[in-house]
Amino acid sequence: MYNPLGQPLQILQTPSGVGKGAEVVYSRLLEAAQHLIEQAPVPVVAVGVASPGPISFERGQILTPPHFPDLHNMYLVERLQRDLDRPTYLEHDSAAAARRFLRSTSAENFIYILLQQGIGAGIVIKRQVYRGHHGFAGELGHMSVNMDGEPCPCGNRGCLENVAGTTAIEFRYLRLTKQSLPLSTIAELAHAGNPQALLSFEQAGRALGWAAVNLVNLFDPELLVLGGPGAAYADLLIPSLRHHLNTHAYPYLGWGEHLQILVDPLLNPIGPGAAECALEAIYLGDIPLP
């Protein structure tokens, strides 16, 4: 819960119920929202939701996020507006994180790479989030970095998030060592010099670098921003990412002195990003304050 200045008033984390069916996921989301509204010290006037894409903004519908089949074809905005009796705004999770980061930078054009199990890109042009003609812009995790790579739940092969997502790094370490460890432990081992752990992050950083080369050549941004849970280990990813930018991007665009790579210090930028979507409607006067 956030005030009109975008400052957090209360943070509630609850199990999503993903894997137990659409109605369980929705009921848990609704119960959490109702609890916050009931406990709010001030009136709650709007609701913001950030979700993995793709999303239909016209219909307020989550379409087919590959890793979350329980969310497929869910008309979330209509249901929440009815059950909460408040205007509801739906945004792609990486775009929401980019909206929130606008508060932290004066940059006009940047790309926010959200690193988690999936990977998304919030593309900001002239301080506006770019959605594309159908609203599907930013599905960076499904850029193929290896046409002969492993199949992805989206139906493609060699998708970036299957190589550089947080779960992919854990899986790569498992294949190298036959040990199943959480990402935080693999990072500790990498910092201690473990060669398999270092290789797991190096290969993820290399794939991110190839994707970043394409982004930089296409959009010529002022900044690349790494955010989300995977960005907590940016120091293990950036060396390979930077190497590929400097050696493979169009020369002027890729040089380090012309392109900053920043790390968002927020470990969970998605919640504040969702709030930012509702706050924008308030700032524009679409929703009156009580």
TrEMBL record:
Belongs to the ROK (NagC/XylR) family. This is ROK family protein. InterPro entries: ATPase_NBD, ROK, ROK_cs. Pfam families: ROK.
